[in-house]
Amino acid sequence: MSASRRKGKWTGGHPVLGYDIHPRGRRLILNAGEAHQVRTIFTLYLDYGAMLPVVRDLDRRGWRTKQWVTRRGETQGGRPFTKSGLYRLLTNPIYTGDVRFKGQVYDGEQEAIVKPDTWESVQKTLRRNGRSGGAGVRKPYE
After folding, report:
1. How many Å apart are CA 142 and CA 138, to the nearest integer?
2. Positions in the chain short of pLDDT 70
3. 3-state SS string over the chain?
4. Cβ pair 80, 64 in contact under 8 A
5. Which of the four CATH numbers 3.30.390.10, 1.20.120.530, 2.120.10.30, 3.90.1750.20 does domain 2-128 have?
6. What φ, ψ does residue 134 adopt, rounded to 5°?
7. Residue 20's closest CA among 2, 6, 33, 7?
8. pLDDT per residue over 49-83, tens digit each?
9. CA quadruple 75, 57, 41, 88: dihedral sign
10. Phi and psi (nearest 5°) for 67?
11. What pLDDT score does 101 carry?
12. What pLDDT shows up at residue 138?
């Protein structure tokens, strides 16, 4: 599996919004409607600059997480976005055409959904908005 991942192949797991799994597996194919949603989500985050307003906006639009059917025939996903789910989406390098494996990022076989400059802007904003809200702790033990 690690060799396949390093070659950029899809090795399984939960499908992600914006892609469908090729019927023969091991490859992701673009889902045009969902890809539009992903691009919009990245743009909304840059516009709002924070997670909660984006989650609220997505809820108003009625947008949900990726929904799929398991091999057992069970429906999974399709839930409203949460801040943690949105964070996972915004930090997943799969949207730039890459794959992550054991902390390393490799070139993927799937088509990129998000442009590199958009990706970098979102990552920069996420870092700036970290738990401290962009400011360091002044008096940690008082």
Report:
1. 10
2. 1-12, 131-142
3. CHHHHHCCCCCCCCCCCCEEECCCCCCEEECHHHHHHHHHHHHHHHHHCCHHHHHHHHHHHCCECCEEECCCCCEEECCECCHHHHHHHHCCHHHHCEEEECCEEEECCCCCCCCHHHHHHHHHHHHHCCCCCCCCCCCCCC
4. yes
5. 3.90.1750.20
6. 95, -10
7. 33
8. 999 999 999 999 999 999 878 888 888 889 999 99
9. negative
10. -115, 135
11. 82
12. 56
CA 126 to chain centre: 13
Q: Tokens 């194919």 sit at which residue?
A: 29
By the 8 A CB rule, do 87 and 130 touch? no
Collect all residues with Cβ–Cβ distance below 8 Å to 79 and sequence separation of at least 6: 64, 65, 85
Tell me how long the chain is. Answer: 142
Q: What pTM does this model have? A: 0.83
How far apart CA 53 and CA 11 sit, in angstroms, is 34
Task: At 51, list the tokens.
Answer: 């997670």
Q: Which two tokens stand for residue 41?
A: 């989500």
Q: What is the pLDDT of residue 12?
A: 62
